[in-house]
Amino acid sequence: MKVSNTKQITKTSDNLAQQLAQELAESRDWTQIRRKQKIDIELSNPEYLQLFMSYGRRITDVIESCLLRGIEMFYRTRMSELIVDKYTPQRLEELIGQIAKGAETSRSTIVKQTEVKLTLNEKFNWIYNNFKGILGEIRINPRMIKPIPLSKVNATHVDKLVCFECNIDGVEVQQAITDKYDTEKSGLVMAEKYSKDLCGAVRKIIYEDFQYYWLREPTHEFSEKKSLRKIAAKSYGRFVSRYETGDKVRVLGFYRTIDQKGIDEKGVEIEIINMEKLDDDVEVVLTKQELLNFKNMSSEDPESFIKEFVTSCAPHIQGNDTAKLGIVLSEIGPSKLVEKYRPHIHILLEGNPGTAKSEMLKWFAKISFMGVYADAPNASSRGLMYGQEEHGKRKILKAGLMVRNRKLYLDELDKMGETRQELNTAMEQQIASYHKNPFDIDTEIDCTVIAAANPQFGKWKDGIDLLEQLKPLKPELLSRFLIIRVIKTGKTRERLAHILDTMQERQRVSPKFSERQIAGLLNHCRKLNPKLTEQAETVILDFAELFEGIKQEEDSNLEFEVRAQINVIRVSSALAKFLQKDTIDELCVRLAIKFIKECAQSLGMATEVPSVQTDFGGVPINKDVAFLRIVKSLQKESEDGCFSEFELIKKMLELDQFWKTEEAATGYWNKFNPRLRKESPYYEPHTGRFQKT
Question: What is the pLDDT averaged over residues 388-392?
Answer without folding.
Answer: 73
